[in-house]
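Q: Fold this one first, please.
A: Sequence and structure below.
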Amino acid sequence: MNNDFLDPINANGMPNLADSLFALDFLMAAKNGVRNCAYALTEMASPEARALARKQLEQALALHDDISKLMMDRGWLHPYNVNEQFQLDIKSAETTVKIAGMKIFPDHTSRLGSFADLNN
């Protein structure tokens, strides 16, 4: 990766990186849904509400399982191999640092004069 953000070579692998990021975000949301359903289940008193919450919890667990399997199949998640997951996390962190170091925005970002003067 070079420092020219307009160079097409920097786009190599970006769709896969984006897909893995979206999948990870979806996985975290599903995990949060499981937690929320489980918590709600402990707060409900009526048997009907508990049955509904239990069904939603099962669906949330199934969704989490499906996303996890997809990520493992694509090589984006290695929950059973800490060394592989660690290497993947290191590569992700290095890529993030490289992208953050790219000069994407101009030095001069002042927008003074771009808006109507409200003081007059």
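Q: Good. Now the second chain.
A: Here it is, same layout.
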Amino acid sequence: MAFDNFNGGNKNFPPREMVKGNWKCSECAKEITELPFAPAPDRPIYCKDCWGKKRAERFSR
């Protein structure tokens, strides 16, 4: 899964440089091939869908 033009929708900044690799989402195990950051080995990573759900949960409190 690729995060296309993952710059938060802000047109004032250029698109973020993507880090290519092979990872699995920590929540659903979906394959991830690009991230907008270099993942830390001791932290979970999430696909776009799971990240969106986690953000929604966090901000609905």
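Q: Anything worth noting on the second one?
A: The longest helix spans residues 48-59.
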